[in-house]
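#structure-requests
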Amino acid sequence: MMARADFGSAAWWGEVAARGTPLVAANDAGADGSAAVTFLWRAAPGAAPHAVYLDVYSHTPHPSSGPAAMRHHAGTDVWSWETRLPSDWRGSYFLMPVGAERLPPEEGGATALRRWWVGLLESNAQADPLNLRPPHAGGWGQPLSPLLLPQAPVHSAWDRAAAPQGRLHQHRWHSFTLGLSRDSWIYRTAPQAQAGKPPLVLLLDGHYWARQAPLFGALDLLTAQGELPPAVYLLVDAVSPERRAMELPCHAPFWYALQQELLPAVEALEPATSEARHTVVAGQSFGGLAAAYAALNWPERFGNVLSQSGSFWWPDPADTASGGRLAADVANGLGAGAPLRFLLEIGCYEGSMLGPNRSFHQALCAAGHHAVLREVRGGHDWLCWRDGLLEGLCELMKNFDESEQP
């Protein structure tokens, strides 16, 4: 396509639109199994930007070290960026055209670049209009496009899920302890199932799983297939990026309030087990760190952890090896005497986060916990986490015996 004589013409764009973007070279498999991928953006008539930036999660350079800029082909309305990706790549990306007045700062270093980039996201970021797959949203609603190469694994439950069949309560949690209110969602799968208190699954970043990528139908499907037991799912809103960054990294007041205020409200609406062995806490990134922190500090309440891309470097972003403060606390006896079950998932493209996850896993095993580390083909990306969430819940809950529940 890029070498055609009519490159950039209306006919050329028509074929691009029919094929969809990014363009993937079908006959250009590298020796390493990679594929040539070309991202495209078309300038609107009379509105050519000064630059077009591209963010391919877990692939393009971090914006604080200089964003990836697309190339403008002179004399055309074509902007492009080419790369090679593994043939099983799955991930998100967005495009961001900017005018001359919004170019990156020349001074201030990485901090100024980060501030500039964050400021642009809300106003300029957009999904790829030529991508034939439906766009999706990031953790706070930013528009994203999916990129799934031919061998990318995709959990079938997302495509086969029907409208939710369970019982949903939307509960406004007014926390006296934390001094704010937030949404929570309480969902009971298979409400017609036998009496008794089913397992409880607590999902951090619940706003994402309730609004951006609703998972209720997928949970219903997996429950009907017998891959998940009937359960109560509690989804807790993170409120805002600032609040999330305060509450999820090992913040005891959040967990005290959740246990003293929110869990009793859940019990009143949709009774579930209070046994740690049938309770799962799941989270991503800071949420993965938070899930592990909760179980280690309150093992009598939270007995199973699903951590995806856990931020175990915390509190030092430069720590790429040790497993952070939480691993040190485990080595010093935190959680000792109460064997817990951990499923840690980390993407092979997550770079500096691999070391802390491996070290945290080693600390857990040395302390006698049942811990599994799963390094998956993926990046730091909701598109990967949504598949791993379903797979991880099925793995952790497959041995839950309803007959043992109170």
